[in-house]
Amino acid sequence: MATEELISKLTSLNEEFANALIQLSSEQEIREVQAKYLGKKGMVSALMREMGKLPPEDKRTVGAAFNKVKSSIAGAVEGRLGELAAAAEKADLERTVDVSLPGRVRASGHTHIVTQVRDESVAIFGELGFEVAEGPQIENDFHNFEALGFAKDHPARDEQDTFFVDDGKLLLRTHTSPVQIRTMLSEAPPIKIVAPGAVYRRDDDPTHSPMFGQIEGLLIDENVRFSDLKGVLLHFVKRYFGEDLEIRFRPSFFPFVEPGAEVDMQCSFCIDTDSSRCRVCKGTTWVEIGGAGMVDPVVLEHVNIDTEKYTGFAFGMGLERMAMLRHGVNDIKNFYEGDMRFLTQF
Ligand code: PHE
């Protein structure tokens, strides 16, 4: 190739590049095209290899022409990149921000309704001086049954629908009453506790779930009477469900209390209206809230408490049931399904 031809090719490469550059609008594209011209395998480098074949006296001029084209391309690239950056900055500055747009509120979590029932109940009994006691959910036969007066062949065991663990050596506690036993074994009277927690039974229908919460109460002291039990439960019902509500006891049997009772309160949903169609109490005006009674001396003997000196009462209530009665919920499954449309109501 002759010197003139080389120089004219170089010049047209330079122009070609300048034209290509204006079409490009991203740094990546620009760098790619730049490499096509100036890179080792690029078009300018290909021409440069031709330079070796030129007469020595021309090499200087041609060399200078190469350098000019290289710096022209490099300069054009920098210029174009600068233009693009400036345009981007301008667009950024011109972007309007609507300061009147409401902010995005993030939903914050809250305690589950059954946890609320537990905490509020504990607080109300706390006002009366009851302290919280706890026990394990995996229990043995002694604490869950034996010490509570369920002898081995006692028919009341059948009603507990027990889940057994470890080939029957252990079980999932069927009620919070074993916490009574654990507390009386570790503390001397006077004892005044409430024990909230999960319990398990092989039960499953709209008002029963295989796992649910209970709150147990136990008071052991000198001269404790049934009227004390009534006073405590009445106070609780009035504080938690409504000032106007009365309670009543229906005789019932639990092996660990004597006398034993089921406790009802007046239905808060229809107290001021026609009860006949009330779906909460089914027209009876009363709803059951739990079991209670005077601690059977047999139980006190199991835990070595002097039955001549001490008496006591105990009660147990279902937490989900309390939530259902307070809020008129009719399917216990609502509490476990995690549907936010249900849960955020409380
Ligand atoms: N533990 C009984 C139950 O779950 C309830 C209860 C507790 C009854 C305390 C009387 C006294 O059915």
Topology:
Layout: H1 3-23, H2 27-38, H3 43-50, H4 56-94, H5 113-127, E1 131-132, E2 138-140, H6 141-144, E3 164-165, E4 170-172, H7 178-186, E5 191-200, E6 211-221, H8 226-240, E7 247-254, E8 257-266, E9 286-295, H9 297-302, E10 311-318, H10 319-327, H11 340-343
Parallel strand pairs: 1-5
Antiparallel strand pairs: 2-4, 3-4, 5-6, 6-10, 7-8, 8-9, 9-10
Helix pairs in contact: 1-2, 1-3, 1-4, 2-4, 5-8, 5-10
The structure holds phenylalanine.
Can you describe this structure in just a few lines?
The chain has 346 residues and is an alpha+beta fold. The protein is built from eleven helices and ten strands.
Could you explain how this protein is built, in words?
- There is one protein chain.
- The protein is an alpha+beta fold.
- It folds into two domains: 3-93, no CATH class; 113-343, 2-Layer Sandwich (BirA Bifunctional Protein, domain 2), CATH 3.30.930.
- Helices cover 41% and strands 19% of the residues.
- It has eleven helices and ten strands.
- The strands form two sheets. It has a seven-stranded mixed sheet with strand order 1-5-6-10-9-8-7, with helices on both faces.
- Helix 1 (3-23) packs parallel to helix 4 (56-94).
- It is elongated and about 130 Å long.
- The mean pLDDT is 92.
- Phenylalanine (PHE) binds at residues 175, 177, 216, 254, 257, 260, 291-293, 314-316.
